[in-house]
Amino acid sequence: MKKLKLLVFDWDGTLENSLDNIYLCKKAIADKYNVTPPIREVVSRVLGMSFDSAMSICFPYVNKEQLETLKNEFQLSIQSDKFKSNLYVGAREIIATLKNKGLFLVIATSKSRSALSASMRVNEVDYLFDMTCCGEEFENKPKPKMLHHIMAKFNVNHDEVLMIGDTVTDVLFAKNADIKTICVTWGAQTKDVLNTAKPCKIVDSFKQLEGILETLC
Questions:
Q1: What is the mean pLDDT of the chain?
Q2: Dist. CA 50–CA 61, nearest whole Å
Q3: Are 27 and 177 in contact (CB under 8 A)?
Q4: Residue 216 contacts by C-beta under 8 Å, 6 or more apart in sequence?
Q5: What is the set of domains in the chain, with CATH numbers?
Q6: Which of 15, 37, 147, 155 is most buried (CB neighbours < 10 A)?
Q7: Are 129 and 106 spatial neighbours (Cβ–Cβ below 8 Å)?
Q8: At what angle do helices 91-100 and 206-216 cross, to 10 degrees?
Q9: The sheet that has 104-109: what strands, in order across it?
Q10: What is the pTM of this model?
Q11: C-alpha neighbours within 13 Å on the C-beta side of residue 102
């Protein structure tokens, strides 16, 4: 493997500790509109999917009009102070370290543009990333068009890029672009679930991730 030039990070569950707030937000809007709320396991399972698919799975018993209302309500509510999420401890430090090494750093997420921008501003990390890509702007994960666009933008080959995420969807996303993946276990899915997709590595801490990247960058 060539020395890495570009790292692509997922956002929710990888850098931002947002799963609890995503679940609580969906439960809150379900209560507001008197519909059946999703269970936490379902919210966790759909993390990384396209927004439309995730909402459809979380709210399978509502009609099309109700689903659109819930989507709009979620997009507004998740950006409020009530559901503000912070980065995982250690995330900011590793990003800053990698930036200082001269690597290109990119976010590739299924999150909406408005929600991602708000989260990055609140956590004061927007200046550390060279590019951000959201699901509404491309075919969503695991289709690889977003990654192809990123590689073309920075003129790098697939073996100079690494994907870092927390779901099977992230692994499949990278594999479809012939990119290797490191998965983290502190996000949406367990190590056993992640192993089914056969990522290159699975790590349990940012310290472990930094140690692996030190040998690759």
A1: 93
A2: 19
A3: no
A4: 1, 3, 4, 162
A5: 6-17+86-215 (3.40.50.1000), 18-78 (1.10.150.240)
A6: 15
A7: yes
A8: 10
A9: 131-134, 104-109, 6-9, 161-165, 180-184, 201-203
A10: 0.91
A11: 3
